[in-house]
Amino acid sequence: MKLDGDADKIVARYPQSGSALLPLLHLVQSEEGYVSPAGIEYCADKLGLSTAEVSAVSTFYTMYKRRPVGDYHVGVCTNTLCAVMGGDAIFATLKEHLGVGNDETTEDGRVTLEHIECNAACDFAPVMMVNWEFLDDMNPDKAVRVVDELRAGKEVHSTRGPALCTFKQAERILAGFEDPREGAVAGGGAAGHATLAGLLVSQGRTPTGPALTTEASE
Ligand code: FES
After folding, report:
1. Per-residue pLDDT tens for 100-152?
2. Which residues of 174-201 are buried (b: 16+ CB within 10 A; e: fewer)?
């Protein structure tokens, strides 16, 4: 596999080679767009594991995909809080708009739609993720706008900062390589206003930031 040099760098980070399996699977996805049969064999050979062991891990975690993913993996949280706040409506709207079912990719190969479980961002519900970057406080109209702009090749930013990159680029970052996007690292991922509101109230302080509402904001 042509990523041999990068794979060696990942393996060298760990005292025991088997510990490198998770980032190595991300590296495979950065090349193949999913965990391919060839990728499973490659990881097994590289780390001295059986293909059954590699398969067991790669099918356990939802971030590892069994089929090729489009340029943008759009995950809509349909877990309890997001669902009642509008996640189900967002998912149904995107299914209709994109003409795909769950875990399916649009004909142009640009978008793969999947309903996902809670991503611990319930304070910004309903949330959508694009290649694992958050788009907070979504609603069906905003979700349609995002996928249309992505398919049109426009630059779209996560609500937490960085410009969205492709699935393969994101997988390379998740494998542990440099994030080349301007401001992405400096953004840092600090807690947002909704995350801190309860803490501030418990301290007798006034929450800051946009007013909290039960409806997705525009
Ligand atoms: S329920 Fe959607 S992020 Fe928690």
Report:
1. 999 999 999 999 999 999 988 998 999 999 999 999 999 999 999 999 999 99
2. bbbbebebeebeeeeeeebebebbeeee
- For the chain, the helix, strand and coil percentages under 3-state DSSP, each to the nearest 5: 45, 10, 45
β-sheet bridge partners, residue 114: 75
Is the CB of 195 within 6 Å of ligand 1? no
Distance CA 130, CA 102 (A): 15
CA–centroid distance, residue 26 to ligand 1 (Å): 24
Specify the DSSP class assigned to residue 157: B
Regarding the beta carbon of 127 and ligand 1, being less than 6 Å apart is answered yes
Q: How far apart are the CA of 63 and the centre of ligand 1, in A?
A: 16
Q: Three-state DSSP class for 76? A: strand
Q: Evaluate: CB of 80 within 6 angstroms of ligand 1.
A: yes
For the CA atoms of 6, 8, 12, 16, what is the dihedral angle to 10 degrees? 120
For the entire predicted model, the pTM comes to: 0.88
**Six-digit token pair at 194?**
């909704």
